[in-house]
Amino acid sequence: MKLSSRVDVKVLLSLSLVLLVGLALRLWLLAGPQTELEADEAVVGLMGRHILQGERPVFYYMQPYLGSLEAYLVAGSFAVLGSSTFALKLVPLLCTLLFIGLVFATGYRIGGLAAAVVPSLYLAVPPAFFALWSLKARGGYIETLVLGQTLLLMAMKVRKTGRVGPGMSAAMGFLGGLGLWLNPLIGVYLVPVALHLLLALRHRLFGLGLLAALAGAIVGAFPLIQYNLTHGLATADAMFGGKAEMAEAPDYLYRFFRYSLPILAGLAQASSSTKFFWSAFSESPAASGLVARATAGAFLLLFLFQSRRLLALVRGKPEGADGRALLALLLVAAPTAFVLTRFRELVTEPRYLLPLYSAAPLLSTILVAGGPVRRRLLPLIVVALLALNVYSLASLDPRLNLPDTALGSVASNRRQLADFLLSQGLDRIYTDYWIAYPLAFETGERVVPSVISNGFNRYYPYSNLVSTARDPAFVFVAGSKEENDFLARLAERQVEARRDEVSIYSVYSRVTPLDRIRP
Description:
- The chain has 519 residues and is mainly α.
- It has two domains: 2-138 and 246-399, no CATH class; 404-516, no CATH class.
- The protein is built from 22 helices and five strands.
- Strands 2-1-3-5-4 form a five-stranded mixed beta sheet, with helices on both faces.
- It starts with a helix and ends in a 7-residue tail after the last strand.
């Protein structure tokens, strides 16, 4: 009994230390320039604020997918702490700590304390890509990882006991349905879990347990189901309406290994900006073909070492009951789904590959710790990987973290812009998508924007208010293409306007005649 207590204390202390390290790192990141608020996050913040005012959005504004669960969590954070960028980003931060704890629990179930500590520590001090996305309130990605990792743990427990009761079935169905509403990325977890249970339990999976799972899924996905019944299966149209040519799959598989995998490993910095990504990539360690081949080889070897467990699972042998077979399925499912769907276009910002962090660190640790010689090498490997992660974090270029269409727009100069606009009575503006929503959020919606470039209006009440304003302002990053296009329209349509420079911005007001230029 005393031995068991000592083991429990050791486990709890280890988990607590890992979580404290993960928390400290992310608080440090929040204090720096790497986690500036971007427009898509600001939309989630505005949704959270509107929820507190009585709105009940089902999805991310102006689209029929990405359920609004994250916005409701943000509303709870705002209710307690007040509306702020920190309170907004606190939601993904806490969800990330929960995810790390679940990875710790998964490793402990499969391989003991070492298999719990190493992968969770790797995620506590992670590659730059995971570190940044662990603080983004943008579409419920981290929350999806939490749901997925929980489903993995539950599936392992079911496989160990050899049976799935109605209660467990209903709970797994509910989490799966909730995930389907939240983010289509949950499918990367659902397929391996379903396949694993089907192969492991076979005929025992059917019956009352299956009915309970379906009932739970309907409850979890109820907002998704209700919305689609009243909007003509809009989610299905959005998810499967785009084309993803099968003939291009081999090319995207190459891009996965050449670009996305090194980004996930911390060997290159991700970016949605093609303007900056390729020049930065050419100077990164991943630019070396040798490094890229080594990363691809390590990934393939990791799967190869687990392939016998997958074969054992298919054949119904006991070796396939190990949770490693389930993780190996996830290792295949994530890149397969990536290269076969339209989301593969995000090869330089591979957020739809985030589930690989649920499997690769765990399987790598268990593989290395599997023999006495390799076990002695484990500390050296861990130190080397953490050093690489710290390097990837220390070498981050803030420009790559934000879209290049509003380059230089950050909270500090938006504050100057807001002060000027409000002092001049210019509280209705036309501007760029990547300026509009951060400005609306940071000013408590005292400045109301309408989008005229690089995006569309996510919130129609804003555009309606601006469209009826008597003297709206037009705001651009000074010297940008958008400003030059605007000046060309002014000249072409013989329109006059007053121009003020505020920090990096150009503000046009007193536009006469307004009707000739109003969007």
